[in-house]
Amino acid sequence: MRLIQISDCHLRADPDARSRLGFPLRQLEAVMAHASSLRPDILLVTGDVSQDESPASYRLAGELFDALGCPWFWLAGNHDHPDFMQELRPFHQELDLGDWRLLCLDSRISGQAGGELGREQLAALSLSLRAGRAVSPSMACPPRQTSSRRSAMISPSMRRRGQASGSWISTESASRPGWSVSSCIHF
Q1: Dihedral over Cα of 180, 185, 186, 187: its sign
Q2: What is the Cα–Cα distance from 136 to 73, expressed in whole angstroms?
Q3: Terminal CA-to-CA distance of the chain, rounded, Å?
Q4: CA–CA separation, 75 vs 53, rounded Å?
Q5: N or C: fewer beta carbons within 10 Å in the chain?
Q6: What pTM does this model have?
Q7: Rounded to whole angstroms, how far apart are CA atoms 25 and 43?
Q8: Which of 72, 80, 78 is nearest to 102 (CA)?
Q9: What is the pLDDT of residues 105-122, one digit of tens each?
Q10: Quick one: CATH architecture of 92-187?
């Protein structure tokens, strides 16, 4: 299974719009061309698809993701408008990848770059971990940095941001043999 994960496209309604780092649509087109050459089985887009939260920006992204020719799924990031995203493509809480389950968790906190998983999501995550198959949680906004080496949620920038759910993730991942990797791209 070849999964490609893309994040932080920051598209705008205007396809020719410039950001401080270039032209987001052109940059995403280049990324998608490279992704296509890798022949992925699935594409996961983990947030911040749009910078201006416009329906047009999500349509531009959707056209590029559709052209990849494989199933794709997305999560909302802190710059996204979830309702506009779901009008184009619904969110999925869990993806069945054969021997793996990819959990798509909403960790957004409105107006903040860091994230948090609420009690309901943590309870659902705990139940999923008991189900026996390998699990890979994925979210757009990382919770608090953890000390677990089994969790891939470790980066220098994460030491400065996040919420208490990161410590729960560290504890759970250390005690669960099926836990594989946590992907959070928004740093």
Answers
A1: positive
A2: 15
A3: 26
A4: 14
A5: N
A6: 0.76
A7: 17
A8: 72
A9: 888 877 777 778 888 778
A10: 2-Layer Sandwich (3.30)
